[in-house]
Design brief:
The chain has a single domain, classed as Cytochrome Bc1 Complex, Chain D, domain 2 (Orthogonal Bundle). It is mainly alpha-helical. The chain has 7 helices and 2 strands; from the N terminus they run ααααββααα. A hairpin with a 2-residue loop joins β1 and β2. Helices cover 60% and strands 9% of the residues. The chain is globular and about 60 Å long. The structure holds heme C. Heme C binds next to α2, α4, β1, β2 and α5. This is Nitrite reductase (NO-forming)/cytochrome c oxidase subunit 2. GO terms for molecular function: electron transfer activity; heme binding; metal ion binding. It comes from Pseudoduganella namucuonensis. InterPro entries: Cyt_c-like_dom, Cyt_c-like_dom_sf, Cytochrome_c-type_DH.
Length: 151
C-alpha cells in the first residue's frame, strides 16, 4: 500500500513539474541539436568560420532573429549564394537539415533566438510543421533575409 502511495505521489509531482520542465527541456534539446548538427560548420559558440559557415550571431542577427520563419526556413531548404554578413560577403552552400524532426528544428531555432542571440520568444513545433508543409524556396528565403536586414 505504501509503495502504491509513493508511486501516486511521484507521478503527481511529475505532472506538476511537467509544464516547467518542458521549457527547460526544449533549451537542452536545442543546445544538443546545435552541437550535433550545426557546430561542425557554424562552430561551438555560433561564431562561424571563414570559408566554412557564417556566424549565427552579431549585429545582423538582432534583425534576422526577428524574422521568425527565417532560421527554420533555412534549416528546411538549405542556403546557397552570396550573402553579406558582419564578416564580409560569404558564398557557400548549406545542405538542407530537413532530416531533423519538427521538434528538433523548433528547439534549435529557439536556441538560436534565445541562448545565442538573447531574444525573447520561441519557434514552436506547430510553426515548423506549417513551414514544412509549405516550405519557402532558397530565393524566397534570400528575399526574406534582405527585407529583415533593411528594417
Ligand atoms: C555543412 C556545413 C553546415 C551545416 C552542418 C549547417 N550549416 Fe548553416 N550554413 C552553412 C553555410 C555554408 C551557410 C551560408 C550559405 C551561403 O553562403 O549562402 C549557412 C547558413 C546558415 C544560416 C543563414 C545565415 C545568414 O546569415 O543568413 C542559418 C540560419 C544557418 N545556416 C543555421 C544552421 C543551423 C541551425 C544548423 C544546424 C541545424 C546549420 N546551419 C548546419 C553551413 C552549414
Amino acid at each position: 500500500m505504501k509503495a502504491v502511495f509513493n508511486i501516486a505521489a511521484a507521478s503527481l509531482a511529475l505532472a506538476a513539474g511537467a509544464a516547467q520542465a518542458q521549457a527547460g527541456q526544449q533549451q537542452t534539446q536545442g543546445a544538443q541539436v546545435y552541437q550535433s548538427s550545426c557546430a561542425m560548420c557554424h562552430q561551438d559558440q555560433a561564431q562561424g568560420a571563414a570559408g566554412l559557415a557564417p556566424a549565427l550571431k552579431g549585429s545582423q542577427w538582432d534583425k534576422l532573429a526577428k524574422a521568425r520563419a527565417y532560421a527554420p526556413g533555412v534549416l528546411l531548404a538549405g542556403m546557397h549564394g552570396p550573402i553579406s554578413t558582419d564578416e564580409g560577403t560569404f558564398n557557400g552552400v548549406m545542405p538542407t537539415q530537413n532530416r531533423l524532426s519538427d521538434e528538433e528544428i523548433a528547439a534549435v531555432s529557439t536556441y538560436l533566438l534565445r541562448e545565442v542571440n538573447g531574444q525573447q520568444g520561441a519557434v514552436t513545433v506547430a510553426e515548423v510543421a506549417a513551414l514544412r508543409a509549405k516550405p519557402a524556396s532558397v530565393s524566397e528565403l534570400r528575399a526574406m533575409r534582405k527585407q529583415a536586414l533593411a528594417k
